[in-house]
Amino acid sequence: MKIGVVQLRSVLDPAQNLATIRKFLAEAKSEGAEAVFLPEVFYSMSDGTKPTPYLIDGKNEHYEAIRALAKDSGLYILGGSAATNMNGKIMNRSYNFAPDGTEIMTYDKMNLFAVDLSKHPSSTVIDETRVYSAGNTPKILPLKDFKIGLSICFDLRFPELFRSYSHQGANVLSISSAFTVPTGKAHWHTLLRARAIENQCYVIASAQWGQHNEKMSTFGHSLIIDPWGEILADAGEGEKIIFAELSNEKIEAIRARLNVLRNPKA
Fold first, then answer.
1. Between 233 and which of 5, 58, 242, 265 could a Cys-Cys bridge form, CB atoms 3.0 to 4.6 Å apart?
2. Residue ranges making up the domain that contains 54
3. What is the pLDDT of residue 266?
């Protein structure tokens, strides 16, 4: 299955973000991709101190705008997240749609990001608990012959989540992100390759890139990594879409020659 991974410089205004995404979806369609993965908070990027005013709330116009990305393109739209109002709690929710616009599954970010780099040259200080409530339910999305473990950004630093996914049969890990520049430079490639290698899964890491507002700047380098840990595509910097083929045969071949997925003893 050929997939595309979109790297964005999302801003607060959803209309601007959607216009950019639609351009990349047209490119994905022309390249023969079946599914496209979007990054964290692709719909609207706030400054991190308060929620975006463009909240998904039930099946409101913002929900329908995301749903239309799938329906209009005829592609699976996967992985990306948008701020969602759930009875007064704001969730960082991943939305996943089939090509006909049917909602397949949602996932709420379980591990909320907090970093204090006030003494770093970037002066980055973020605490997502001021904005979001945490989810509590891991999700595996079935798609054709693949099983995709869903996660968002800071979840990446919790390897037990991905180990659980692989023991439940996941062979692809989706990690949509908006990694900060200093943490991205230090850890992004290393952590993502580790999750691929230790679980013998494809890792699809759709990322935000660039200066989004006065407070938010992200690392980019969206990645597609195979189950051996080889980087199949790296978006580097800039807004773009990258592509790769996912192969069940490759997963099975790698797992056959190096079995690291034996279930732990009860």
1. 242
2. 2-257
3. 36
